[in-house]
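Hi team,

As requested, here is the filled-out complex form for the histidyl-adenosine monophosphate run. I kept the field names the same as last time so the parser does not choke. Let me know if anything looks off before we queue the next batch.

— J.
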Amino acid sequence: MNDRLPSGGPGSARQGWWQGRNEREASRVEMQALKGFKDILPVESGTWQAMEARAREVLARHGCAEIRVPLLEKTELFARSIGQATDIVEKEMYSFTDRNGESVTLRPEGTASVLRAFVEHGLHTVQAVQRLYTLGPMFRHERPQKGRLRQFHQLSVEVIGSASPYVDAEVMAMAWSVLAANGVAASLEINSLGCPGCRPAYRELLLTFLNDLAAELCPDCQRRRSTNPLRVMDCKSSHCQERYQGLPKMKDHLCGACQEHFVRVQGSLQALGIPYAVNPAMVRGLDYYVRTAFELVTDQLGAQAAVGAGGRYDGLIAALGGPDLPAIGFAIGLERLALLVEQAAAAAVSPPALDLFLVGLGQEATGRLMALAHAARGLGLRVGQDFEGRSLKAQLKLADRLGARWVLVLGDNELRQGQALMKEMASGRQQPLPVAPAPRAWAEALMPLCQPSSTTPGPI
Ligand code: HAM
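And here is what came back:
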């Protein structure tokens, strides 16, 4: 038996088991999940399963089929698609050399892997327009905070083979509907990032503007000026943002075809009744987008405003060695969606405030108040009562916590004297209320004071 024990440190035998307390503490720390990696516990997994089922149902209605792709790919796939000069490729990828000496990367997003599979298996030969989705973990070495993890999950959707602006609108509607099916509303922001025809001239214009400001910009923007000038718009520094007030906007420098596409996308969104706002400062963190780019943003997630995002990426499939097919897609961050779903559920189940809380002090008074509560509820009032024999102070505290507008206080003595006390919680106003022998009559006497809340159905 002893042979199987790990050899402890000095004095381990005397420390009870094979480890001392300090060693046990230390090993407990080591056994925590990595920073930015999160367990989805049994209490949460129900939310996740429901969320995913609703999403799958929406996608099925749009004719999407699931594709499951590996978590690990050649590093080059992401460098070539997402862009060498993006934050993701420059500093966030989990890349390593495998045992064959090949540089491999845990996927930071789903699009590149889905397109790699699409090309590898010649899926364009199966059907002219392919609608694919994948769901699973992605990895980015970002600074973790609420709604931002290093391993997170995306629902990623790609519609391949159509350049129609109607498809752009439909894809945005799909993302919108996945959120709506989960009881979440977000604001849709859209922009056009132009195409390889019009973007170079715009880039030059932007560079001229930035060169004039060069000395005043933060080091990040200095760097972006030469690597990826569009990304200066994402700079968090208010100093830089003040200087970008007059920055030329891509949407004002679109070629005729991009301009027409953008107008038709907006017309289609209007036809679908999906509200949107044009955000000319929106640039995406991935380089593959052309024309339409969009984000679904909310103010309920702190700094991480985007619950979903996407755009058109015509040209990317050809760049990956496949046929020259237009395509558009989006991804929804499932941790962020789960936070929003939980917030919405908490708001939905939080009990409505009470019209009246009945404070009974003594057995007899409590019994009489129970009958009053029943009668008052029958008249449409929301009524709460304590049956735990708490003190007056504790019951008043409870009434306050439950948001009661009025409190009725009745002790056994007051009951004998036939006089209860009514107190309006907000104002502190008090007034006596005679005890009526019949609960229904007593409840009716309360009605002029505590009108039922507007959402309460009438008498039943
Ligand atoms: P993305 O904007 O990088 O786009 O990510 C899409 C969504 O994934 C974000 O809006 C956010 O909800 C979630 N997300 C991103 N990073 C994190 C993180 N560190 N922690 C938690 N959630 C995160 C893409 O990935 C594109 N592939 C989308 C796409 C598909 N475009 C075309 N097709």
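Two things worth flagging: The first helix runs from residue 21 to 30. The radius of gyration is 31 Å.

Thanks,
J.
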